[in-house]
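Q: Hi! First time doing this. I have a protein sequence and I read that you can turn it into a structure. Is that right? Here it is:
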Amino acid sequence: MEIWLIFALTGLIAGFMAGLLGIGGGFVVVPLLLLILPTVGIDVERSGHFAIGTSLACICFTALSSSYSHHRKQAIVWPLLAPLTPGLVIGALIGAYLAGLLAGPILILFFVVGALLTAGYLLSGHKSPHSNSKPNWWLMFSYAQFTGIVSALIGIGGGSVLVPFLVYRGVPIVKAVATAAACGFPIALFGTLGYVYSGWNQNHSVEFAIGYIYLPALIGIVIFSSLAAPLGAKLAHHIQEKRLKQVFAVFLIFTSAQIIYSQWFSAV
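A: Yes, that's right. Below is the predicted 3D structure, encoded as structure tokens:
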């Protein structure tokens, strides 16, 4: 019963953050699963794959819930999904494939540095010009590929990577958050399929698992994240743009510190 309460609390926090900041909640889900999964019989060597794969599966549902809430507010810039979605799908599949081949600490360090630089950019108060000009298709497609790869490798919805880029391209922060929430679904869906495939033939003998997806965690987290995501999305539309940038920057700093600590802790 205790572990189900942990899954429920994780879902509430992840869902709320997904709706508020346009992220899939992976920064909440993955670190907690890394701590919890070894207690249910999943060894440390494979807990990373299960944590990331399960996180992406959870994001599929969370992204749909938060996207619907943002869509009702007419905040999603749907034309941007045309150049972004193909890149996100390809990137997510590549990221899921590379997950079993690349050294995790190198990528995580790279991401942490990028997250801190992004936080600094948002806190600097720099104002990007809001342009209604036609977006550069190839630039959008290429950056979406990068977003999909990074997201699938570390189990996030891509908002922390995509939102700063959209803001830099002149998209207002609330619309950038809403659009990133919608983009989280294709990343998570195809990333999940990649982790199911890569773990399907592994003799990990874990009960209640499909590939690298741990079903009890998926069910427990999804139920409560879907309830909390609309609340976060609603709050996002009542916060000033400057304040939302600050919240997002603080979130990036916090999660970067969390990742650094978890890496140090696991190495001890």
